[in-house]
Amino acid sequence: MLVLEDQARIAVIGAGPAGCFFAHTALQLASRVGKSIHITLFDGKDFKKSGPAGCNMCAGVLSASLLRYLDAEGIRLPDSRVQREISGYHLQTRDEELDIIPPGQRNRITTVYRGNGPRFSEVEGVISFDDFLLEQVVAKGCQVIHQPVRKVLLPPDRQDPIRLTYGPSDQESTLEADLIVGAFGVNTRLMRTFKAFGFGYRPPRLLQLCQAELPLPPEHIQQKLKNRIFTFDLGLEGIHFAIWVPKATHVTVTVVCTHDATRKDLFTVLNHPIVRQWLPPGWKLPDHMCFCYPRVPLVAAAQPYADRIVIIGDACCARYFKNGIESAYITARYAAETALTRGVSQQAFRRGYGRALRRTLIRDNRYGRFLFKIDYFISRYDLLRKIHMRIAQWPVSRTASRRLHGILWNMSTGDLPYSQIFWACLQPDLQFHLFLSTAQVCWEATRQWLVIQWRSILRSHS
Predict the structure, then answer these.
(1) What is the pTM of this model?
(2) Which residues, including other chains, have CB under 8 Å from residue 269's CB and lie 6 or more apart?
(3) How far apart (Å, rounded) are the C-alpha atoms in residues 389 and 396?
(4) Which helix (H) or strand (E) element contains residue 28?
(5) Which pLDDT tens digit goes with each residue over 36-94?
(6) 69 sits in which H/E element
């Protein structure tokens, strides 16, 4: 059986949230079981830099549930790293708009930058969320090497440590580790490297998004957008939805399509008349903008573990279209708990890490994929969209409206598992009112059609 002995060496490839959360949890658990471990994190990025050199391509929303996790871990985000406190969510369709009202007391939601702000922006000091997390684990004794990992060499004997090389090609260095943690994410070549090892790892199927940072006046974000996260569901061909995430002086725009998104798709959204009304009068696209094309997993990876190897973060699995940073925390915690309490063999990871992922993220994502397909279907048909919007616009004192707002809120924020949202959709009182609303909308449409036909007949006989 492979276990981490005292003075074990762990190499974490990737120093973003997944890597830092793993290091934080592993050090805590090692202290509880009376072991000393040495953790080295590798990352070619410098999170103190702005633009692509320091960014991990993320909209940067910290959900209420993630902030509760961080509070419980004693990790408190300083105000200097927070871009905006979010007041709520706003849904904009082709014909209607809706402020989504949270069920019960509103939870705290904040936005951050993963790196030190977008390209072409002027930032004072360090505002990076990833850099903040890295500071926390460095303070606990972790070593950070700001160099890319070039090779990972598996030993012929599973009892021997794994060797990796890093640094510039002409000055490569070597490190041996008792455990390799792949926290490299889905936007690197290392997924192919680990797949080539042949232990069964198969990277998740990915979808490319298009993301940009729109510079907007802070007073416009405060007064017009009201510090809300916007979802634009406009029924555009091939475009699922677009998200606006307000920051201090920018709005992060993310476009999700049924295909790999491009700048053309993003410009289609930004030039839409309904979207333009939320921009300042006469606003024009700047000559220079910070663009990126993040990829997100649509399904979980196959077998993200082997002897002395475990892959975490979105290169393993993430919640479907939601809470990528929180998913990094969940996968990192499960992996660290398995490594420190069960062992680092493939069998140990299968029984601990693998089962925990299936129980929480993987099975729940099946419900998530179904819910997003239903949402996409509803947004494409005016009749269905009007039925749901009619109920949502009722006073929240009415049970059906309150239930629908709860569903919309939890779909937007990810505060509840998709399975719970799915069963909430099947509540009898909500379905009853959806049926009544369907009958009313159909009757109104039929009546309008009859009036048009009657007038046409009258005109033909006059």
Answers:
(1) 0.91
(2) 232, 234, 236, 239, 242, 253, 255, 275
(3) 13
(4) helix 17-32
(5) 999 999 999 999 999 988 998 999 999 999 999 999 999 999 999 999 999 999 999 98
(6) helix 64-72
